[in-house]
Design brief:
446 residues; globular; mainly alpha; 4-stranded mixed sheet
């Protein structure tokens, strides 16, 4: 499922600014697959790097909070092929591998994704810390103590020196060489950004404000291309298909009318039909959308994301019971993907059947192994345990929700209630104690 996260906190929304994260199993998995060779070339642990998709039209990406790479949808949609995107993320990886956030590493790792985005909004821009450069929204813990405080301090840490920028470019070139990939995509995207800079007279994109594009920088990669034996290396067919589907999916959800114009009805390519199915659904043509996705499923019965999309279409159209088989099939095909289990559980709970409530909670318990900072998971968990008449687990889930929202007092109260309601010595009872101890151990932010 592709869906935007709720706007960041009421105070931010009241200022007229809205910034959302997007969670989508397919997009996250595809980007991770494309960039994992780069991470390994950089000697990073791929499982430790997080991909965050920001719903924002500007051409931007940045690294913050340890090994979290934030990528704007505007950047994804403007890349024309995977090699361009990989070049952008190779540069980001250069900042991580080079320890360019080392001065702030300890403080940055205390920040949640939500705090990082709020701080950037508070400073007036999505600052590009490093880039060359919608699933159900999941929020990371918001304020269980710690944090850096003023947005300006975070903005300071997100600005790199020219030396660090040059170092990240050099690292990107090295990683591309090690993985036998061309630097042409990087050059192409730098030229896209250069064109953007020329067009933005009187206003500057946040990325361009911190990453001046000079002829020297483009020349550096052109010189590297002239020396590299991999300059004309072909792109992976798998990566090309993944990139086509990322762009088609994002456009279908975020700009359905444009998608219907771009992907003509006669285009029988899978990404085109995928985009049309999504765009038709988003413009209210559910019947045509279902016919289109059913056609894709007939040809590709084991594509989990087509089943997931069909489930989303039905669920969001008020047909929860009909969506359950599609979501169940997606979960079976993606057994290790927690975010799909969360969406499945949501549909199950909407059917108001006790057996489905129990299945929903089982899926949520499995999903929390990888989605423990997912606000929606805990909200659904609280609803599910409430339906099962389990007050202790309901209170514990509400405590987890409060932590993610940054409400310390509420988290403390729910954890204390859960501690009284749960059987002493059980893992859930211990977790309630841990929440209380954690909150008490964290200094309050001034």
């Amino acid at each position: 499922m592709l869906l935007a996260l709720t706007p960041l906190r009421d105070a931010v929304a009241q200022r007229g600014q809205r910034l959302s994260l997007i969670r989508d199993a397919e997009i996250e998995s595809s980007i991770r697959t494309m960039v994992t060779p780069i991470w390994r070339a950089a000697r990073l642990d791929p499982s430790a790097v997080e991909i965050m998709i920001v719903q924002d039209n500007s051409l931007n990406a940045f690294v913050a909070g340890g090994q979290r790479i934030f990528i704007n949808t505007g950047l994804l949609l403007r890349t024309e092929r995977p090699n361009q995107l990989i070049g952008v993320l190779a540069h980001e990886t250069g900042h991580i591998a080079g320890g360019h956030l080392a001065r702030a590493q300890e403080e940055m790792e205390k920040l949640s994704t939500l705090q990082i985005l709020e701080a950037l909004l508070g400073a007036g821009a999505m600052a590009g810390s490093s880039a060359t450069g919608s699933g159900a929204g999941r929020r990371a813990p918001a304020d269980a103590g710690g944090g850096m405080g003023a947005p300006g301090s975070l903005m300071y840490f997100l600005k790199y020196t020219q030396t660090q920028e040059n170092s990240a470019d050099q690292a990107a070139m090295t990683f591309l060489e090690r993985t036998h990939q061309s630097v042409k995509g990087t050059i192409e995207f730098l030229r896209i950004l250069q064109h953007e800079e020329r067009m933005m007279i009187g206003r500057r994109d946040p990325y361009l404000s911190t990453h001046p594009l000079t002829p020297d920088r483009i020349a550096f990669f052109e010189e590297a291309a002239a020396r590299s034996p991999y300059t004309n290396a072909p792109e992976s067919a798998q990566f090309l298909e993944m990139h086509h589907r990322i762009v088609a999916k994002l456009m279908g959800f975020l700009n359905p009318n444009a998608a219907l114009q771009r992907y003509a009805e006669g285009d029988r390519a899978v990404p085109a039909r995928y985009a049309r199915a999504i765009a038709l659904y988003r413009t209210g043509a559910l019947g045509s959308a279902l016919l289109t996705i059913d056609g894709l499923l007939k040809e590709h019965p084991n594509d989990p994301y087509f089943h997931e999309l069909r489930g989303q279409m039905l669920f969001e159209s008020g047909r929860a019971a009909e969506s359950v088989p599609s979501y169940r099939h997606a979960v079976q095909l993606l057994p290790g993907v927690g975010i799909v289990k969360v969406d499945f559980a949501r549909a199950l709970l909407e059917t108001n059947k006790p057996e489905n409530d129990r299945e929903a909670v089982r899926n949520l318990e499995l999903a929390r192994q990888t989605e423990s900072d997912n606000f929606d998971l805990w909200r659904l968990m609280a609803a599910g345990y409430s339906k099962l008449n389990n007050p202790g687990m309901t209170s514990l889930a509400r405590a987890e929700m409060a932590i993610i929202r940054g409400n310390r007092a509420e988290a403390q109260a729910h954890a204390a209630t859960a501690e009284r309601q749960l059987r002493q010595g059980t893992p859930a009872w211990q977790r309630a104690q841990d929440i209380k101890a954690y909150i008490n151990s964290r200094p309050r932010r001034k």
